[in-house]
Amino acid sequence: MYRSAHDPRQLELDLFFMPFGGYLDPENRWVKLARRVPWQQYERQYAEHFSKHTGPPAKPFRIALGALLIQKQLATSDRETVELIRENPYLQFFIGLGGFTTKAPFGASTMKQFRKRIPNDVLGEISAYVREAEQAEKQRETGSSDS
Question: What pTM was computed for the model?
């Protein structure tokens, strides 16, 4: 079963709960990347893999896609990806959690499920979109500093 967990306010850094105080840096690479990823654009495709009324609830799309993008970016194993997410508030923000927790949001075996539901071609398409958005952002920054 799948229910969209998209909350547009989650991208607001001041809403991310840090139990030990402080704030996330808006210039962090994972915060910037979170703004570039077209989360909603691909969520509908992901939801098609699930029944709307039966079965246990699936992990939200942002968690699934975010974990796969982290793994691809850092070239890590399933276990290492989960461990990095568990210990890093920036990665937890990136995958859409509402605040930092020391508990892993899913197990390493769940990564296999994510890969089944978000195939490599879709992951590649999203990665290309993100690269283009990053290049456009850099061009805007360079163009605006020349004036």
Answer: 0.83
